[in-house]
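[step 3/7] inverse_fold.run input=structure_tokens len=470
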């Protein structure tokens, strides 16, 4: 009996020692469930090293987001070596790459840095640019170039150099560079280019600022030059076609990266479609007075159903100094995202022209990151992913509405419609009731709802209408 007790005691001691050993000597990836760091947006390797020295005691991630250094593999490696030697994970940004040379470099650093190389942060804000910027597509069948503008217009430049310009308002402009004869072919062959404007009511105006166009007859225009026929030729003509084009374009851009490493990007809208394009990690923007619970709901919901990772990047709140929100508010935002399950936490630290030694981050911001690291990440009393979404709002399939305000555009090229107002009202109500326990996702048969969702709200109906007071 005594021998058995002694043997049991020895086994317990061995188990305890083994546990202590594992806790103290495990690999970093086993003990660090989340990644906390800042971006470096400067153009000097030495300043990058200075920032690494500043943050290395209370972060584990260094994000190189330099527009200048992304073109210099040697400088990227030097900063990567320095960050990894300081015990930090490394994530470099690239706005473009040539696969022929990039692939060689990528395989080299993957071998060199191992798990400390997190992947590639490629191309910023694909969803946001679709809503607010210029995005170019190509019709692979016809060879036409399609430009989505920041104003919500769609401009098609055809291979014969003619241009069809579809305004967000519904007006259509046609430019024909090839000459057509004027005066019903009675002007001795006088020819000129043509600008014509087509209105939804059927009215057509031909630009007669050039005197050679004074006698142009509407009948001289091509057969397809009517409002209805031009409208039927419009690309990106509905939300489904636009979603497919957006996904295909981005998938083509990052196909190599998503196969070779972990593909990161940051964005402030359309996260669901970023993931569908092939990105593995989305860092949602927190700042610019965005509603944090709405953006967490959209990002976490997309990541949950598509089995991806997500995080946050704290961006500017102001367009002038101090740029970033207060240190306390940043600490609160990071803590909220931590409890909601975010895996990555990054502060956007821009380097301007004022020779700031550590970019736009001030002491209170560094102190906020340090407090988050020590009081949250390293604190066993604060549980990561403790706020679980038990409610979900389901949006229409492919409905790429910006959702930042009630009159926000859909895919950047359609005006808000009746669905928009209905979704807005329902979203506000659901977030008010369930707050951070809400996810927002899109109706897609490829991604069935997670079993954790106890309350399911469809954009046009609810599972339990009584909770909404209907």
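[step 3/7] decode complete -> sequence:
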């Amino acid at each position: 009996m005594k021998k058995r007790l002694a043997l049991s005691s020895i086994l317990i001691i061995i188990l305890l020692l083994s546990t202590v050993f594992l806790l103290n000597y495990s690999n970093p990836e086993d003990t660090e469930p989340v990644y906390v760091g800042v971006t470096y947006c400067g153009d000097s390797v030495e300043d990058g090293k200075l920032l690494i020295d500043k943050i290395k005691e209370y972060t584990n991630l260094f994000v190189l987001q330099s527009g200048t250094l992304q073109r210099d593999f040697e400088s990227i490696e030097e900063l990567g070596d320095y960050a990894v030697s300081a015990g930090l994970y490394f994530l470099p940004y690239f706005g473009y790459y040539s696969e022929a040379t990039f692939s060689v470099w990528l395989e080299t650093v993957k071998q060199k840095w191992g798990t400390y190389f997190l992947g590639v942060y490629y191309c910023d804000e694909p969803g946001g640019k679709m809503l607010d910027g210029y995005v170019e597509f190509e019709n692979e069948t016809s060879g036409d170039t399609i430009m989505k503008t920041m104003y919500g217009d769609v401009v098609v430049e055809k291979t014969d150099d003619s241009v069809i310009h579809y305004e967000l308002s519904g007006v259509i402009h046609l430019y024909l560079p090839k000459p057509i004869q004027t005066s019903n072919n009675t002007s001795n062959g006088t020819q000129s280019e043509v600008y014509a404007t087509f209105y939804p009511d059927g009215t057509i105006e031909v630009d007669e600022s050039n005197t050679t166009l004074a006698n142009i007859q509407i009948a001289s225009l091509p057969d397809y030059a009517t409002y209805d026929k031009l409208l039927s030729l419009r690309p990106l003509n509905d939300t489904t076609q636009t979603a497919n084009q957006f996904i295909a374009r981005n998938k083509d851009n990052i196909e190599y990266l998503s196969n070779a490493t972990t593909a990161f990007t940051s964005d402030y809208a359309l996260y669901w479609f970023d993931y569908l394009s092939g990105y593995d990690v989305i860092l949602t923007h927190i700042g610019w007075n965005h509603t944090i619970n709405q953006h967490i709901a959209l990002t976490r919901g997309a990541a949950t159903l598509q089995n991806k990772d997500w995080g946050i990047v704290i961006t500017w709140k102001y367009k002038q100094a101090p740029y970033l929100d207060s240190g306390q508010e940043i600490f609160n935002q990071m803590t909220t995202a931590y409890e909601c399950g975010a895996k990555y936490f990054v502060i956007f630290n821009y380097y301007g022209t004022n020779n700031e030694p550590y970019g736009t981050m001030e002491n209170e911001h560094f102190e906020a990151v340090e407090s988050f690291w020590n009081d949250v990440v390293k604190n066993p009393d604060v549980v990561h992913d403790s706020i679980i979404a038990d409610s979900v709002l389901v949006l229409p399939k492919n409905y790429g509405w910006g959702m930042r305000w009630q009159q926000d555009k859909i895919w950047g090229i359609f005006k808000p419609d009746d669905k928009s107002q209905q979704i807005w009202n329902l979203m506000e109500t659901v977030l008010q009731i369930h707050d951070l326990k809400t996810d927002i996702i899109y109706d897609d048969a490829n991604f069935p709802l997670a079993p954790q969702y106890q309350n399911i709200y469809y954009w046009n109906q609810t599972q339990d209408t009584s909770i909404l007071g209907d």
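[step 4/7] annotate
The first helix runs from residue 2 to 25.
Residues 1-30, 182-189, 211-215, 463-467 have pLDDT under 50 and may be disordered.
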